[in-house]
Structures are given as C-alpha cells and as structure tokens.
Design goal:
This protein is an alpha/beta fold and 406 residues long. It has a domain at 33-202 and 216-231 and 279-301 and 331-401: Rossmann fold (3-Layer(aba) Sandwich), CATH 3.40.50.1820. It contains 15 helices and eleven strands. The strands form two sheets. Strands 1, 2, 3, 4, 5, 6, 7, 10 and 11 form a nine-stranded mixed β-sheet that branches. The protein has a two-stranded antiparallel sheet with strand order 8-9. A hairpin with a 4-residue loop joins strand 1 and strand 2 (57-64).
C-alpha cells in the first residue's frame, strides 16, 4: 500500500505542476472569468449551446461571433477546457484569429470537464457518470458536436482542429464512424496523440503502475480527476503561491515534463491558465494514456481502445484484448503539425501516425527546434511559427474565399 501511495503522490505532484500552477504578482482579470466572459470582454458575441450525445452526456459548446462562413470546430486536449483557444491576446489566439478571418468558430468541451458536467440521467457525484475514457469522447462527443453544428448552420461540412487528445478523439470518431469523414473539409492535428510508444516525458515512469494508481484513486472515491472542486485542486492551490521561487520551480517542472522552450514561454498569461486548468476528467481517461505507453513499449506503435480487463473486454469487444483502431479509415484530409521538442507527442509517434492515416495531406514540423506540447496553445511566438503557416495553407485559404466549395 505504501508503494501505491508513493506513486499516487508523484502523480498528483506531477499534474500539479503540469497544470501550470504558476501565479504572477499581477493577476490577469481573465483568470476568474469563464470562457464566455472572456470572449465577450474582448468585444465578440458569444452564444452558448448544449449538445446531448447518444449516450446522454450534455456538452457545452461556445460560438464566437455569428458568422455565415465555414464552420470550424476547435477541440481541446487532456484535462483542459475550450479556454485554451482564447487565452492569449485576441490577435494571438487561434479562436479569435479564425473568427476575425470570417470563419464560424465553435469551441467544444469534452465530457466531464468544467463546462460539460451534466447528463440526462446520471449524477456526476456518482461513479457511473465517470465510467468513460477518451474512447467515448471520440465515439460520442465528436459526432454529436459535428452533427449539431452542421444542422445549426445548414452547412455540408466543417473544419476540425484538435490539440493533443483532441486529435485522438477525431481519429476514433472517423475510424469508428467512417461516414463522418464526408462531413469534414479538413482536419488539423496540433501535437496529435495516437500511439504513445515513444512518449518521452519523465511521467512515463508512472505508467507501469497504472492499475495500482487507479485502485487508489477509486478507493479514495476520486472520480473527477483534477477537477477544480476536489482535493487535488485544493492541494494545488496550497502549493502554488505568488513567489518568485515557486514560479521558477513550476517552470522547471513544466519544461521537464513537456519539453524545454524557455524563449517561447509566455509568462504573461500564466495566471489565466492557472485559473482554468485543469478542468478535470475521468480516471479512465488518464489510465488510457498510460495503457497506450505500456502497450507501445511491449508491442510497438499501436492506437488501441481502453483496456477494461479480459472479461470486460470480451463482453464489450468480443476479444480479451482491446482492439486497435484502423486509422486507414480516417479518410478526411488531415494535416499534422508537430514540434521537435515535444516530449508528449513524440516525433517518432507522429511519423507512425502519418503512415497509418488514410488521407494524410501533409505532416509539418514547426520551424523551431524546441517547440513543445504547450507552445501550440500559449507560446509567445506561436503566431509566427504556427498560426500564420496554418492559416496560409492553400486549402484553408480556398475554403475561406470560396465557402460554397466542398
């Protein structure tokens, strides 16, 4: 039992620092605002929608502006919320930049996070509500959001942009429901996650102990992992103080986990990030990433469903081992952007993913040697290094100028 407690302690501390628990002496007012309040405070119209999935989860969807242009769906990654896309100043945030170009921008929130914690019959206080991994986010959340947006706008297709787990969700959705591919103009994966075989962050040391960690978290009735209102968030608040030494410590730990990029580190929005991240998720979602690394280490690159154990796998999948997703069925046009300094989405795993996808258009290395996992959202130079090239892509520009084309 002491071993379990030891590794859970490491896990909590790791995510405490990974959650950017850094405060600055001057606290940004956006730190205490909701996504909707931030959007409106920047002078944009924001509309809130609630989307119900086939399995009953109620997701909150935020729309920037009221454009009749091509719809774009932005999907955040692990433990995040849609505030990721609007944290930087308006001219440096992808959500606002796309809105300024005339796109009809939608920010989605995965089940279980701060904004999407409702269900038609399940109570989030009950364990049954949290019985999901990112399999369900792909199988149900992505199709529900896509269908809702297309029905609302009466458009035939949309553009999907996903960061990290947000990309994995898309691959699960389109591999499991191939008809969904025909409703996607193009997909852009930023630091996309699929295979975890070459995951190179030091937190991989925790992966072999995933079963023991899950047991401990369930024994302590931790259902919403790293949600704002539970004990892990309160611990974070107690650790993260407004001191120069804490700032330095947290920065060093972040670089240790995600990749070192001091020059591109945006300290001006740290209090905003700390105010919103983490948004919480299920224990199973975290465990699925660990399972991916463990499987990849044993058997090589794979992208598999959640492992429930032999008997439950047999009941759910018809086999004792979780099946792999057939990524060749992802036939929507896909563009990948990745960073050489990313320890979480390894360049080797990106290379493997590129060979599996059914319609890869381009795999683009960001032109910065230390560009890491978080730079895709909050880097000082992300406008020049990432968003400018992304927006300049010929097909994206064509769809903006000629939105009637599909």
């Amino acid at each position: 039992m002491r071993l379990v407690v030891f590794f859970v302690g490491i896990l909590v501390l790791t995510f405490v620092h990974h959650s950017l628990c850094i405060a600055t002496n001057v606290r940004n007012p956006d730190a205490t605002k909701s996504t909707v309040e931030i959007i409106r405070s920047r002078g944009y119209l924001c509309t809130v929608y609630h989307v119900t999935t086939d399995d009953g989860y109620i997701l909150e969807l935020h729309r920037i502006g009221l454009s009749s242009g091509r719809p774009v769906l932005l999907q955040h990654g692990l433990l995040s919320t849609d505030v990721d896309w609007i944290t930087n100043p308006a001219g440096q945030s992808l959500g606002f930049r796309l809105a300024d170009m005339g796109y009809d921008v939608y920010l989605s929130n995965s089940r279980g996070n701060t904004y999407s914690r409702r269900h038609v019959r399940l109570d989030p206080k009950e364990e049954a509500y949290w019985n999901f991994s990112y399999d369900e986010m792909g199988l149900y959340d992505v199709p529900a959001n896509v269908e809702f947006i297309l029905n609302l706008t009466r458009q035939p297709k949309l553009i999907y942009i996903g960061h990290s787990m947000g990309a994995a969700m898309f691959y699960i959705a389109t591999a499991s429901r191939p008809e969904l591919n025909h409703k996607i103009d193009l997909m852009i994966g930023l630091a996309p996650v699929a295979s975890m075989a070459h995951f190179n962050s030091p937190v991989k040391a925790l992966a072999p102990h995933v079963d023991a960690i899950q047991f401990f978290l369930r024994a302590t009735r931790t259902r919403a992992f790293l949600a704002k209102e539970n004990w892990s968030r309160r611990f974070q608040k107690s650790v993260c103080q407004h001191t120069f030494k804490t700032i330095q410590l947290c920065q060093n730990v972040i670089f240790y986990i995600t990749g070192t990029d001091r020059e591109n580190f945006n300290s001006s929005v740290l209090s905003v990030i700390e105010g919103h991240f983490p948004g919480g998720t299920s224990v199973n979602t975290l465990a699925q990433f660990a399972q991916g690394y463990n499987t990849g280490k044993r058997e090589g690159e794979q992208f598999r469903a959640y492992d429930h154990g032999p008997s439950e796998n047999l009941r759910r999948y018809g086999v004792t081992q979780p099946p792999s997703y057939n990524l060749s069925l992802v036939t929507a046009p896909v563009y990948l952007f990745w960073g050489a300094g990313d320890l979480l989405a390894s360049p080797k795993d990106i290379e493997w993913l590129s060979k599996q996808l059914g319609n890869l258009q381009s795999s683009v290395k960001v032109d910065w040697p230390e560009f890491n996992h978080l730079d895709f959202l909050w880097g000082v130079n992300s406008n020049r290094l990432l968003y400018d090239p992304l927006i300049a892509f010929p097909k994206l520009v064509h769809l903006w100028i000629f939105p009637e084309d599909s």
